[in-house]
Structure formats: C-alpha cells, structure tokens
Specification:
The protein is an alpha/beta fold and 171 residues long. 47% of the residues lie in helices and 15% in strands.
C-alpha cells in the first residue's frame, strides 16, 4: 500500500454548512473568501448532512456563529451521532464559532473524548484557516489510510482462513 499525498497537493472537496443561512455578516463573507482562496479545493455549500451534495467530502466547515455555549454543545453532540450514523465519522469538521475555547473546555468532556476529529475556530482568527484546514485534511487522509489498512487486514485474514481450511481438507 502506498501512502496518499496530503493537504493541498491533490484536489479536495470542502462542504460549507451555514447553520443560519438567512443571516449575512462580514465574518461569514470573510470565511467564504478564505475558503475560495485555498488551492486545489472545491467548496460546496450544503444545507445539512442529508444534502445530496454533502458526500463525498474531505472536510466539513460549519458556520455556527449564532449558537451560544449550550446550543453549540447540544448541536455538536447531535451532529456527532448523525455523523456516525451516516458513516461519515472519517470526515473531520472545522466549526466557526465566536465562543472562547476557555468557555467550552469544562462543559464538553464527552465531545472532547469522542472518536471524531474537529476544530473550533474563532472568526477573528481566520488567518490560521489554511493551516487548520491542511491539518484536518491530513487527519482525513490518515483516517482513510487506516481504513484501507483495516480492509487489507480483513482480506488477508480471510485468505489465511481459506488456506487453513484447504490445508485441513488436504490432511
């Protein structure tokens, strides 16, 4: 198995999901501009996980500007459950929220401990967006590589079982 190239070296699909699409502001416009400037990236606007354009997707960017701390926690918990149900747990997410990370640390233990990769970025820190997205895309690649390894191991185990069965039949 060969390792796949990561980050911006190959074409990627980013799904942008605005949780409050009726609202428009400069932060939202700046985010869209930043996303459009990324090399080798196609940005698709989606209305949710069930949107037919959502998959395939390498990264979800969720604009959650209007959610307070309790709403964000609840949304993240539900989102993760729906994510797992759809088998999309391998797709990392970047959540754009004005909440300070210090406010979130003590209230979201279950989410921090989950088996899902995500990052939360404050709209004032969009300059770090390319690095954060590149890192999440690398994580996506690593997860896909682990998935390919798991499939290969399963195939090999099945082959071993078949050979063992054939050996038993020869005896």
């Amino acid at each position: 198995m060969t390792r796949q190239a990561v980050a911006f070296s190959s074409h990627r699909a980013i799904c942008a999901w605005d949780l409050d699409p009726k609202r428009s502001d400069t932060n939202k416009l700046n985010l869209e501009r930043f996303l459009k400037l990324l090399p080798s990236v196609t940005m698709r606007k989606v209305k949710g996980l069930e949107d037919p354009d959502f998959l395939p997707c390498d990264l979800a960017v969720v604009y959650a500007w209007h959610l307070n701390q309790i709403e964000l926690k609840s949304w993240l918990e539900n989102f993760e459950k729906r994510w797992k149900k759809q088998g999309a747990i391998w797709i990392p997410a970047l959540i754009v929220s004005p909440l300070e990370i210090g406010e979130l640390l003590g209230t979201m233990e279950d989410i921090w401990a989950s088996n899902w990769y995500f990052d939360i970025i404050h709209p004032d820190h969009l300059q770090s967006l390319p690095v954060r997205i590149a890192n999440l895309l690398r994580i996506h690649d690593h997860l896909n590589e682990l998935h390919r390894y798991e499939e290969e191991l399963s195939r090999m185990q099945q082959s071993i079982r078949t050979i063992e069965q054939q050996l038993k039949e020869l005896k």
